[in-house]
Amino acid sequence: MIGVDIGGANLKVVDEDGVHIHYCPLWQEAPLAAHLSEYAGEAAVVMSGELADSFSNKMEGIAWIVDQVRQALPEAQFYGTDAAFHTTPVPALAAANWLASADYLREEYADAVLLDVGSTTADVIPLGCFESLKGLTDILRLQRRYLVYTGMLRTNVATLLGSAVIDGVATPVSTEYFAASADAHLVLGTIAPEAYTCPAPDQGERSRAGALRRLARVVCADVEEIGEAAAADIAAQFWAVQKRLVAEAVEQAMETSGAGRVVTAGIGADLFAKELCGTTLRRNLGSVVDALPAYAVLEVARRTAGS
């Protein structure tokens, strides 16, 4: 059996050989079935890609994803926000990947808040509250701050940074998609160049020089105009806002749930564990923390089959 997590931008698969991450932008009609045809056998699947704007509504997206998966993996079963598995498209399949992680971790880490920071979003999950988490939609999670829409790679810098201080002057930013969080983290050294797996906003080189160029454009400038140090400082200012936004959501979840610690997963696991005095699940789970829902839904399916 394999575990599959289908997001709007990335397809993540966990099998006996490890973790496989495919850039698979559903809004660009990516060939999901073709990617999955590389795998075989039974599959446990979660999704969040039904929200892609190539679909007119979530049910259309769910139905399309289920059809694509079953073309490649006819024995697939799909985990929903009701904490049950389904074989047909139902509304509960929408954005259930985070709940699969909670289902897998809830007993061993009942005293913790899970922070899973991926390329696009941060999931904040009080693991000791599993029953009350069932049925939560993304809008409800946004309202509870269990879903923070910022990530390590794909966040538009201008969505968090309203202005940047340049030469001591608060400078409003352009709201064009000039730079992404991947640019900021690459410049700051919190991701390596090979971790910059999504296309750059300008479709250009995913290097420090390219990232600095894009960051300078956030204030409608060139690197030659404001200097490398100022462009790099835009990255630092963005990270300060991003870190505070996520930290506040985690703190609120800990206060309301009574959790006593933070555990982290996703490609931001190590960074946020350090910043929030948490513990990265990488120590116990290894590389699968970069695709935790895919691994979690696989383990939940195995547990369910054995019960």
From TrEMBL:
What name appears for this protein in its UniProt entry? H4MPT-linked C1 transfer pathway protein
Spell out the Gene3D superfamilies in the cross-references.
3.30.420.40, conserved archaeal protein q6m145
Source species of the chain:
Methanoculleus frigidifontis
Domain Hydantoinase A/oxoprolinase stretches: 44-277
- One Pfam family assigned to this protein is Hydantoinase_A
